[in-house]
Design brief:
The complex is a heterotetramer, with two copies of chain A and two copies of chain B. Chain A is an alpha+beta fold. Chain A has helices at 11-18, 47-65, 95-112; strands at residues 2-5, 25-32, 40-45, 69-75, 77-80, 84-92, 115-121, 124-127. In chain A, the strands form two sheets. A four-stranded mixed sheet of chain A has the order 1-4-6-2, with helices on both faces. Chain B has a single domain (2-86), classed as Ubiquitin-like (UB roll), CATH 3.10.20.30. A five-stranded mixed sheet of chain B has the order 2-1-5-3-4. Chain B is globular and about 35 Å long. The relative contact order of chain B is 0.28. Strand 2 (25-32) of chain A pairs antiparallel with strand 2 (25-32) of chain C, so a sheet runs across the interface.
């Protein structure tokens, strides 16, 4: 499942569904709003394009690392500290591919998917600076 | 003909988004955005330098496909296009 | 929580509890009985020593990677294909430390914790060969 | 005096485990395990080579602490000791 959504994610259900035949390792990455002296985090996406980019990243990861299953759910909206903003679930036959595939996906998301984050503080807010010169990964 | 312009993040806060506008046939991408951005000087400065060239970090899309800054001045927009202009991404 | 146990694990509850102040990334490793033509996997541990080794590994990982929280639950008993046999949950401020810490823990477990696995087939069984020359990591 | 011997995995299948046995004062680690292992030739062969030396991959513990094979022949066991002998680990 690849999605940009506001709703929270049932990680247990995703992990159960990720155990395709041949699975030996499942890795979950749970990205969380970190308490950097902020009140909330606001996330915005260019949804149609972001979903396509996430699908492309999942295809690339499947091919490169022989993954058996991938979920990427990126949340948008406004969330307090501690809340999940991104879940990546991957399964593979062996741990090496699972770790490498999971890491590949998060780095690709950070480099090239049109999603933005604003840290809200009691004095206002600040857009998290992106990675200049990269832009969307798939041109 | 009409096109829709979508700004995101900081650019959206300064210039709005989902701006549907009438344009003349033959209008170029850069010219269109220059015109729209001029309604707010902070928005203009966020996207363009003093020569009216896109800042090198600005990302441009036409119907979900990336347009290079170097090509935008000679890229025509077409009826029904969705044009997107946004700062570097920071998801994950 | 560090444990050797027969019971299954509530991963959702562990992940919620892992979100200590400062957490930006949680990584879950879920090790699963892989279908290598087997009927079941049987796991055995030298429990008292294994728990101490896991605690030592968790301390090492906390120190080396600045982890904010660690759970390691290794199951023993007899399990069908697809069943979880090991859960590692780590949280950290940033993804880099979380991935590295998680990987460190699984590699240390494989190298040095007194746990053994037997693959059961319809014709009998076969002990999974260990890593000769390593033995328990902490002498 | 009595000691408890714990074998694990393949060694346990061949020799049993949690073997509580009376030993004379001054009994050495290697000698104790040689004596116990002799009750089953496959168990003996799994742990010792033809010279009665531990196979290099065998792991030895006395009360949860690792004993090197080179030291085991001259390591005395004591009353109440828990002695463990096992093959290379394979968890995870």
């Amino acid at each position: 499942m690849i999605a940009i959504q506001t709703a929270d994610v049932d990680i247990g259900a995703l992990m159960t569904a990720a155990k395709k035949p041949g699975t030996g390792a499942v890795i979950v990455f749970d990205g969380v709003v970190r308490d950097d002296g902020i009140t909330e985090m606001e996330l915005e996406a260019y949804e149609e394009v972001a979903v396509k980019e996430l699908e492309k990243i999942a295809d690339d990861a499947t091919r490169q690392f022989g993954l058996l299953h991938i979920d990427i759910i990126h949340r948008i909206g406004r969330f307090p500290v501690g809340e999940t903003i991104l879940i990546i679930v991957v399964s593979a036959g062996h741990r090496k591919e699972a770790y490498a595939g999971s890491r590949f996906i998060i780095e690709a998301i950070k480099a090239g998917v049109p999603i933005w984050k604003k840290e809200l503080t009691k004095d206002g807010g600040r857009w998290v600076p992106g990675d200049h010169g990269h832009g969307t990964g798939h041109r | 003909m009409t096109v829709k312009i979508r700004f995101f993040a900081r650019f959206r806060e300064l210039l709005g988004t989902d701006i549907v506008t009438d344009v003349a046939a033959g209008t170029m991408f850069t010219h269109l955005i220059l015109t729209i951005a001029q309604k707010n000087s902070a928005g203009y400065a966020a996207i363009f330098d003093e020569n009216g060239t896109f800042h090198e970090f600005v990302i441009l899309m036409q119907n979900g496909r990336r347009i290079e800054i170097a090509d935008a001045a000679k890229t025509q927009v077409a009826d029904g296009d969705e044009i997107a202009v946004f700062p570097p991404v920071a998801g994950g």
